[in-house]
Design a protein that fits this description.
The chain has 56 residues and is an all-alpha fold. Helix content is 70%, strand content 0%. It is built from 1 helix and no strands. The chain is rod-shaped, with a radius of gyration of 22 Å.
Length: 56
């Protein structure tokens, strides 16, 4: 009985981790696309230089 509970818990943990990792991959792809679009659509500042589109 204990082995069955351990296997069930392991399956739940790995299933949850797989779902979380899948969601994190999609989130990383969205952030990458927004970051790349920021380089394409950044504005031109004074002196003809392109400025940063983010403020850090």
């Amino acid at each position: 009985m204990a082995v069955l509970v351990v296997v069930l818990l392991l399956a739940l943990i790995l299933g949850g981790a797989g779902f979380a990792l899948h969601v994190l991959w999609w989130l990383a792809m969205v952030v990458l696309i927004v970051w790349l679009l920021g380089f394409l659509f950044r504005s031109v500042g004074s002196g003809g230089k392109r400025g940063r589109w983010y403020r850090w």
